[in-house]
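Throughout our pipeline, every protein is held as a single compact record rather than as scattered files. Nothing more is needed to write down the fold, since each code stands for a local backbone conformation. The record that follows is passed on verbatim for readers who wish to inspect the format.
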Amino acid sequence: MTTIQKVTKKKTARRPGGVKGRPRGKTTGLGIQEYWVKLFRQNAYVAKKDCMADAQITAAMKAEFPGRDSAVFDRVSSVRNKYNKGGLTGDEVSKSW
């Protein structure tokens, strides 16, 4: 006869000080994706001379989510492309130019 060994998964404690839940913006309380959408929508409805440049959007993201060293904050054009294709808002296709 063979002996069947019971496989048990070792429980590990959560890293102390780890992020719990989704990160929320410092002033708005929005999540990262929601804040991207908010910035792009605001930018779409202002006069051309008042539009935020990519560097300004990056600065706004970093100010809203301090302590996050996400490299995606520096890639505004790729996130805008995803937003324009509806990737941030579900099926809703958006235009932000």
In short: The chain has a mean pLDDT of 81. The first helix runs from residue 32 to 44.
